[in-house]
Amino acid sequence: MSQHDRILILDFGSQVTQLIARRLRESGVYCEIWPYNAAPEARIREFAPKGIILSGGPASVNEGESPRPPAVVFEMGLPVMGICYGQQAMAHHLGGLVEGSDHKEFGRAFVDVTGECAITQGVWAPGAREQVWMSHGDRITKLPPGFRVVASSEGAPFAVIADDARRFYGTMFHPEVVHTPHGAQLLQNFTQGVCGCRGDWTMGAYRAEAVARIRAQVGNGRVICGLSGGVDSSVAAVLIHEAIGDQLTCIYVDHGLMRANESAQVVATFRDRFNIKLVHRDASDLFLGQLSGVTDPEVKRKTIGRLFIEVFEEEQNKVGGADFLAQGTLYPDVIESISATGGPSVTIKSHHNVGGLPAGMRMKLVEPLRDLFKDEVRALGRELGMPEEIVGRHPFPGPGLAIRIPGEVTREKADILRKVDSIFLEEIRAAGLYDAIWQAFAVLLPVRTVGVMGDGRTYDSACALRAVTSTDGMTADVYPFDMSFLTRVSNRIVNEVRGVNRVTYDITSKPPGTIEWE
Ligand code: XMP
Questions:
Q1: pTM of the entire predicted model
Q2: Which of 67, 84, 302, 512 would bridge with 56, disulfide CB 3.0–4.6 Å?
Q3: Ligand 1 close to Cβ of residue 257 (< 6 A)
């Protein structure tokens, strides 16, 4: 556990609970999110938070079975901040009244600041009208004893409430979303002003603590790490190497579906620059052979996942086995699997990183990034001196180009796609757009179209380009390129890549589309 001041966030199932943690961490405050119903008193006391935040959630406190904060939250003498449902649950628990309302508020709203409290101090002046983001049906209609109103909106007369003596605060709106422009400052007032957190949770401190933790866990044991060349496994590998040096071996499996020059780059970075023991296995014949004739996206994914494990186990045996398996698991994966509402209920796609874990695996897991969000992993990578080409990389899926080639995957198609993809990315980099885009790639379509080049007729493949902005990959917007950029890329692709004579741009957001095509 981190040695720094910490805040506990109890999750009641809001879609945006993770953003509370992000805002806090951005201000240097360590925090953890726990489901409201997995927070027994002993565990909270052991965690020793300096304050507690109750998240929003979809329930109504007037429903019999609705989630309730554990009573101890209000009995430890700690500052508490309730957000949206969290505010209602707190008011209800402390003797206030919450009712359904005809005036529901969703999205942007304005509050009139009528007073002052420790949370609004220095951010919102009395008399001001401030923008916030609301998402509620119920609202408080009677305050619990000891509370007073600090700001109100048309739909929520108790938009900000405060009980200064007990240091309990509530907001009807969501300060954690960017649509509440001063939200981060309001949260900082709570964590640093009210709770007294020092805001000293930096990546430098995290690095030193993580190295010590890895040493303590691994001892003299041997660790293997499946390296994909992506940000997460790369940062995990360099961090673990810093902790235990040659006790670490990385295994990089090239399934023949990587992007242009990717394998050479990974080998050069890890073996040559970081001096990390690396096994590079070219398994492209095996993967492409087994994918022959496979057209169903799920069968493709599962085939690749299965082969990954097979090859990985073979290589692991060759290096003499290991006591630990390192993975680049991130905090959002951890939260998803334990959240109050559970993970997604429908399998849209079978994702995999290392390819799932073999049943009956004896190795213990080393997951040094499980406290971190993606942008924090990038910050840690920079702290470790990793090159920007790796740290700032767009995400790349485990199954690689296979899920960007609808229909059967062949080596020829993969070769064509690599060329298209590298032209697109080269132009994006040249235009200085790489960092503004979450992910950009090309898809080779199983469609042939007629074209004319010189004086001749062509009958070749069409491809699609895709570029999206996103914060976490869960939702995504199309990147709005200039038309001149797209036509330049299209001209280059059709002129330089044999086998492609038409280029389209995918303008579907997520949802309803997904980022990858399969
Ligand atoms: P979708 O297509 O589901 O993708 O909107 C969301 C994000 O996840 C990446 N992705 C994967 N990453 N293994 C991975 O490590 C996978 O099997 C996988 N499938 C999709 C995708 O590239 C996007 O960033």
A1: 0.78
A2: 84
A3: no
- Looking at residue 271, the DSSP 8-state letter turns out to be I
Question: Tokens in use for 161?
Answer: 């409430």
Atom of ligand 1 nearest to the CA of 513: 5
CA angle 460, 464, 469 (to 5 degrees): 165
Ligand 1 and 473: CB distance under 6 A: yes
Q: Is 176 a catalytic residue?
A: yes
Residues in Cβ contact with 317 at an 8 Å cutoff, skipping those fewer than 6 apart: none
C-beta of 399 in contact with ligand 1 (< 6 A): yes
C-alpha to C-alpha distance for 48 and 44, rounded to whole angstroms: 6
| Cα 443 to Cα 420: distance, rounded to the nearest angstrom | 9
Quote the tokens at residue 347. Answer: 């399998």
Residue keyed to tokens 């235009």:
431
Tell me the per-residue pLDDT of 56-107, one tens digit each, with 9 for 90 and over: 998 999 888 899 999 999 999 999 999 999 999 999 999 999 998 777 777 8
Most confident of 301-305, 384-388, 485-489: 485-489
By CB atoms closer than 10 A (0-12, 13-18, 19+), residue 457 is exposed
Cα 385 to its chain centre, rounded Å, is 22
Closest residue to atom 9 of ligand 1, CA basis: 397
| Catalytic residue of the set 176, 242, 427, 518 | 176
Question: How far is the CA of 117 from the CAs of 77, 87, 163, 236, 261, in angstroms?
Answer: 18, 16, 9, 43, 57
Contact 378, 490 (CB under 8 A): no
pLDDT score of 351: 62
By percentage, how much of the chain surpasses pLDDT 90?
75
Half-sphere CA count of 380, side-chain side, radius 13 A: 31
Query: What are the structure tokens assigned to 475, written together?
Result: 């939702």
Of the residues 93, 136, 174, 255, which is catalytic? 174
